[in-house]
Specification:
heterotrimer; A alpha+beta (80); B alpha/beta (453); C alpha+beta (354); B: 453 residues; alpha/beta; Lyase, Ornithine Decarboxylase, Chain A, domain 1; TIM Barrel; nine-stranded mixed beta sheet; eight-stranded parallel beta barrel; 29% helix; C: 354 residues; alpha+beta; Rossmann fold; Dna Ligase, domain 1; 12 helices
Chain lengths: 80, 453, 354
């Protein structure tokens, strides 16, 4: 899984894909995840960071993380 | 450092055609308590899903409707439509308020007697009344509403045979300008069937024609249809007086008033478009009052309102079982509420509220039930905050028809509690168990041998 | 301090919907243009949008600020909630809704908005309902106005009977929007299913009238008086049936028709009568739109600025009916690319404000 490098993200949760012209919005945790992806953080590290910041069980977040990645794929925001 | 409240990560395409959160604010308002009773606590105690009925709301609806009609017309009687919700506790609330009983089967008739309704305050409707039931109803002096000629002849014969003179009315159907026409019930006005039936009754002298009945449809949105119906019944009553010198004691306008639920396929929500009860009352009472009856002759107005009195008082509480992303990227949520318990999901876009605070974000979601059936859909699309497994939801306005049309399919019917006048929950129907279902089954002896062990 | 009242411009905050100046345009942008042209007001214009690509949102010289409002299907409660929020920031004096589908909600909320200080100038619910497509034929009969005969269709099997009685071609119309001409049962059925899915039941099957398309923009005072009437002949019609070019014409029978309609309904506010003038010169009312048409700026150009007049009437001024207008004033609609930035689009999409 690799987040496309040229995707522009903002702190307010807006995402712009200059390759396709699509705009997106995300919630706070989604915005956090996108910045982690950009920094190439490992899955383990991301899970640790999120579980430290938010009130969530690891197992629940792992499931939601996979769903988020599915969403990114659906929206064509991942490198092939 | 205190941890932040968790919300599923989502990303949403900004689309010209999408309704964003501003489009749906009012719909996802959190409902954590029902009349002060916590949804979470109710589910903890009684399980999920759980039907909750509000006694206060039922009484308020009854009293409100009663006031609306009685301030417009001097003689009004309500008869509780058993088929709408025949849990005994519910029926008894209506009977305490003064409602008679309106039943459409022998089963319902027995329930009404069991709830202490005197026979003469039971209206017996419907196309299916057995001979035994007709005789019982006649002996109890109930009001028998005749649906078809076969029933009329049967009743004439039985009255002869048992030396009875039952009080009867005929059900009349007519063109009130609405679609579909309910011409399968009762005798048609326009083609003269109704008048024939009336003549048959008055000529026979074995039946006492005391009333005229109609029930023009269900979830009626056109108040004028009731004005037409009332006027047709008045015309018949007038002709009966003229031709047969007999005064009709009551006109029963049936039921059919809508609740504020939103019908599937309608563009605007029901809460905005459904006429008020005042408008229906105006339509009906102004016709009867203006028809020319003298004050003494004015017939009693009977109403069999069901849905409009109970729908708002019912809630179905449920729990999120899982979230799933569909192949086309849409989000879906599986609930423990299925169409087996929420039958009305086939008719309405029910209002669904989350029972706990969620984030600012909302997502368009399909709400599925737990049944292994493709048709098990509670809402095709609803905008809700991001729900997590185990979160609770409240489905609104489910008091009518669900607790009578629910199905037992692959699982058991849940508990039903009544929030009493102090909002204390009282269990009024226990959840079914496998024993309660299997108690009706019998296994032939040759199938008792188990060859798999 | 010495001033005269005439020198002080009225400070007004006016909220306008229908900013979708696209190929099947909403009237909002034209309404704003007409009001802005009136010298007597000191204006702040608030746009109210539904979708984030409505061009009006990005026309900052016409619209000072835009807020997204909930779709009518979300219910009046949502709308009221949102209007309260906007009002508390903007202190709106007047709202001019321009979408058929939203008028029900705004009429329903009229009193509540008025209590908050937001005026409007709209027909009564009864007037609004009486000209609805599904009852227009009945309405015409009652008031001796010519309306093509129609049938309400609740299931596809009824189309056959309607076709026998009215004959092909039939105009198959949705309850709120959209219409297609059907020449065969198959086409009619196809249209039935499409319109049913989009707008619900019933569907209207209307007798087709061949003739010249004319639209009339009219303004009533709610007491039966017609304040302004401008008839416009469509010169060029797009594939969506919208006028791309049009011209003001002089025809006393059309003016009389509008007067008759407004008198019969005691119409308050703007409306558009869609007319089909048959070969023999009979003007059939095809539809009555309960709001200004998208070409409303032509009324200002022809000397009867209907939007600005509506503003004055909404504020309680007594307005004398217009007597004349310029015949032969033309409009030719044109497409023009407005340039903006993705940030603006993201802002309106994400926050609902721009």
């Amino acid at each position: 899984m690799k987040f496309k490098k040229n995707i522009a993200t903002s702190d307010t949760g807006y995402i712009f894909n200059p390759g396709s012209g699509d705009s997106f919005s995300s919630n706070q945790i989604g915005t956090d995840l996108l910045s982690f992806f950009k920094e190439d953080k490992s899955r383990g590290e991301i899970i640790r960071l999120i579980c430290a910041k938010y009130e969530v069980e690891k197992i629940q977040f792992e499931k939601d993380l996979d769903d988020f990645i599915t969403q990114l794929r659906d929206h064509n925001l991942l490198e092939n | 450092m205190e941890k932040l409240r968790y919300e599923r990560p989502i990303i949403r395409k900004l689309n010209a055609g999408l309704v964003n959160k501003f489009g749906t604010q009012a719909r996802s308002e959190v409902v954590s308590h029902l009349e002060g009773a916590s949804v979470k606590a109710l589910i903890r105690e009684y399980g999920s899903p759980l039907f909750v009925l509000s006694e206060q709301q039922i009484r308020r609806s009854y009293q409100n409707m009663s006031r609306i009609f009685k301030t417009r017309y001097p003689k009004v009687q309500f008869a509780w439509s058993y088929k709408t919700n025949y849990l005994n506790a519910v029926c008894r609330i209506f009977h305490q308020e003064g409602s008679w009983a309106e039943v459409v089967s022998g089963f319902e008739y027995e329930k009404a007697l069991g709830n202490g309704v005197p026979g003469k305050m039971i209206i017996f409707n419907g196309p299916d009344k057995t001979e035994d039931q007709l005789v019982m109803a006649a002996r109890n002096d109930s009001l028998i509403h005749i649906d078809h000629f076969d029933e009329l002849y049967t009743l004439l014969r039985l009255s002869e045979e048992f030396q009875l003179k039952p009080r009867v009315a005929i059900r009349v159907n007519m063109d009130t300008g609405i679609y579909p026409k309910w011409d399968r019930f009762g005798f048609n006005f326009e083609n003269g069937q109704a008048w024939n039936a009336i003549n048959k009754i008055t000529d026979s002298d074995r039946l006492n024609l005391v009333g005229l009945h109609c029930h023009i449809g269900t979830f009626m949105l056109d108040t004028n249809a009731y004005a037409i119906a009332a006027s047709r019944l008045c015309e018949l009553a007038w002709r009966i007086r003229d031709k047969h010198g007999k005064t009709i004691q009551y006109l029963d306008l049936g039921g059919g008033f809508p609740s504020t639920n939103t019908l599937k396929g309608s563009y605007l929500p029901g809460s905005d478009t459904v006429p008020t009860i005042d408008q229906f009352a105006d339509a009906i009472t102004s016709v009867i009052l203006g028809f020319g009856f003298s004050k003494e002759e004015l017939p009693l107005l009977i109403l069999e309102t069901g849905r409009a009195m109970i729908d708002d008082a019912g809630y179905l509480l449920g729990t999120v079982l899982a979230n799933k992303r569909l192949s086309d990227g849409r989000s879906s949520t599986i609930l423990d509420i299925g169409v087996n318990s929420l039958f009305t999901a086939f008719w309405y876009d029910h209002k669904v509220s989350p029972a706990q605070e969620g984030g600012q974000y909302t997502e368009e979601t399909v709400l599925y039930g737990p049944l292994c059936m493709n048709i098990d859909v509670i809402r095709e699309s609803v905008s809700l905050p991001l729900l997590n497994k185990g979160d609770h939801l409240v489905v609104h306005k489910v008091g009518a028809y669900n607790m009578t049309q629910w199905m037992q399919f692959i699982t058991l019917r849940p508990n039903v509690v009544l929030l009493d006048h102090e909002s204390h929950p009282k269990l009024i129907r226990k959840a079914e168990t496998i024993e309660s279902i299997e108690s009706q089954e019998q296994i032939p002896e040759h199938l008792l041998i188990n060859s798999l062990s | 301090m010495i001033t005269t009242n005439t020198l002080i411009k009225k400070k007004l905050v006016i909220a306008v919907t229908g900013l979708n100046a696209i190929d099947s345009p909403g009237p909002g942008v034209a309404v704003i243009r007409a009001i802005r042209e009136s010298p007597e007001f000191d204006l702040r214009i608030i746009g109210l949008n539904y979708e984030s690509l409505e061009p009006g949102i990005y026309l900052h010289d016409l619209i000072d600020k835009t807020y997204q409002i909930p779709y009518p299907s979300a219910g009046t409660e949502s709308l009221l909630h949102r209007m309260k929020y906007i009002h508390q920031i903007e202190n709106i004096d007047l709202v001019i809704p321009n979408f058929d589908a939203e008028l029900f909600s705004f009429i329903k909320l009229r009193e509540e908005l008025e209590k908050m200080g937001i005026r409007s100038y709209l027909p009564e619910m009864e007037q609004f309902e009486a000209r609805h497509k599904t009852v227009l034929y009945k309405f015409g009969k009652k008031h001796q106005l010519m309306v093509p005969e129609d049938r309400l269709i609740n299931q596809p099997s009824e189309l056959m009977k309607a076709a026998e009685e009215l004959e092909y071609p039939l105009v198959i119309k949705g309850k709120y929007y959209d219409a297609t001409i059907a020449n065969t049962l198959e086409e009619a059925q196809k249209a039935f299913f499409q319109l049913q899915a989009k707008w619900g039941l019933p569907i209207i099957a209307q007798k087709f009238i061949k003739g010249t398309e004319i639209n009339i923009a009219a303004l009533g005072d709610g007491k039966g008086n017609t304040i302004s009437v401008i008839p416009m002949r469509k010169l060029y019609i797009t594939d969506k049936g919208k006028a791309w070019a049009g011209i003001t014409i002089e025809d006393p029978s059309l003016i009389e028709l509008a007067h008759k309609f407004i008198k019969a309904t005691r119409w308050r506010g703007g409306c558009e009568l869609e007319i089909m003038q048959s070969a023999t010169g009979i003007p059939y009312i095809m539809e009555v739109n309960p709001r200004f048409p998208a070409w409303i700026y032509l009324t200002a150009a022809a000397g009867q600025n209907q939007p600005a007049t509506l503003v004055r009437m909404a504020l309680g001024e007594t307005v004398e009916p217009f007597r004349s207008y310029e015949v032969g004033k033309m409009f030719v609609r044109y497409a023009w690319e407005l340039i903006t930035d993705v940030g603006e689009f993201q802002k309106i999409s994400g926050t609902g404000e721009l």
